[in-house]
Amino acid sequence: MTKVRGSGRIAASVQPRHIAIATAFALLPILVAARALAAPNHPFGSHPATYAVGSIRPDHVPQATLDQAVRDFYDQWKATYVKQVCGAGRYVVEAKAGAGNLTVSEAHGYGMILAALMAGHDPDARTIFDGMFAYFRDHPSGITPSLMSWFQKTSCANANGNDTASDGDLDIAFALLLADKQWGSCGAVNYLAEAQSVIAGIETGELDPTGSFVKLGDWVSPGVPPYGDATRSSDFLPDHYRSFLAATSDATWTTLLEHTYDVVAALQASHSPATGLLPDFVIDPLGTPDPAPANFLEGPTDGAYAYNACRDPWRLGTDYLISGETRAQAAVQAINAWIRTKTANDPEAITAGWALDGTDTPGTNYRSMAFVAPFGVGAMVDASNQAWLNDVWDLVVATPITAEGYYENTLKLLSMIVMSGSWWAPEGVAGGCAPTGNALCTSGGALLAPQITLSKLGGTPGDDNLQLKAKLFFPQGIPAAAPYDDGAQVLIEDLGNGNATVFELSHANTDPVPPASAGTCDAQRDLWQVTSAGTQYRNGSTALDPPVCTAGTSRGLFLLKYRPRGPRDVDVLLKAKKASLGTVIGPLRATFVMGAAQADGDAGRCAIGAPVPCKAAATSLRCK
Fold this sequence. Notes:
3-stranded antiparallel β-sheet, 19 strands, 12-stranded mixed β-sheet
């Protein structure tokens, strides 16, 4: 399993501001519910993908029966494992992978994929997905912040390293791409941009420097023994790599795809010519790929076909079904031929692990859906497996959820979705939407995870406070030059109030934050500062228009900070006090430009966020 270790000003309101705010927010539950219940683009049972020519699915029962079996088991799975814990609106898949464990990133990735694929059957699917996304963002890796810390305790705290296990992040990124096509990225979460951010984090944190194999996690130092030159066969997810390539146009994912199949072929030729089985862990994937020795990371079966590699027929088989990849078909069919012979074509004889030569490993003489169900997906690659596939399906459906635990039942459900013909790749379907632009930004990056806090509302006019925290994400790299002191522009719009401007500093209607080269209105209090941690601008004069220096043109801005996180990411923090924010309803949308001129936005040095809903508390609003 995973690692064991617009622009106009706001018109004056005839209502007192605190009454207008309270009235508007009384409607929010209705608006949120409407969003959550919006029809998905690809509801479960619609079968939006056509599997590869020559592939099969169970044919001894009608399609409606296949789909209903998935629905029934999903309902049981959800009731058993999906929990709302660790804060308002947060959801997890309860894995209990060890004493005191709540969940792991592997389970989180599975859960997000399942929520996206089961939308249309489950009316709460988007609520659960967004809640899982929020939990994911609550638990970043201490090494690669755009990825997920792999292990949380029942207290909800990160533990066991505060670093990653690669399979969880690969599935989370894929799930976000599914969500973009299922619901579009114009709501509270820009799923596409968030997926691109996770994909970028995987590339920098979880791939080896050549981009040829997936590391065990971001905790691994390339080339440093024993783990720096190792991978898991269960992280061979070529269908995901194809989706990442489509979402980013980054050739790294082609490199990874090609080398993955080279490693599979080398292992089968040298270590399992009679069985096709792959080991849990692989060493020297850039040289001569070999099974890892016993007790390499998890236990005595690290070099055998055990509880990691059992997923391989599902992962590789799915790539054939979606893409028609003949290398996947050949690799999986080798395994099919062996397991059918091993069991005399009786799926009930499948046990729980083997050495690569096909001999039983000690203590595995029992049945596990973690092994049985993926063989069903593997059988789909060739029509000669039809009777075997039908029997595997029947055994899978007949096994009650109470027979096993989270891992086995989750792999069973994921495999059932594929076997029923309900898996699809995001790049292969229509749907989705992207946040629309505005006068400041039409085709830049994405403003991710925005948190907009408004305080001291309803009091003395002109005494409001505002804070904006977000990540500026640019899939092709940050388009502005360090140290990012060429000025800035910001626009916060109230989409629930006719796109009225809540706060703006721009070249269009007000004054932007001036570049360092423009000089200052107060050499002591207005200044750009550059440090090793980032760049910040402070304003104490309240003037943004040197050399004229008109008091009040800052509209309350007193602090702007940039903190680069990598070649594609910049954290931004903006604070204003004694501002005039007007009547605010929400949701809000923020736009940020890294530069003071129209040309900066036109050149894509800008980011625009998806709308974020707001919650009222006394005299404040928190929008995220």
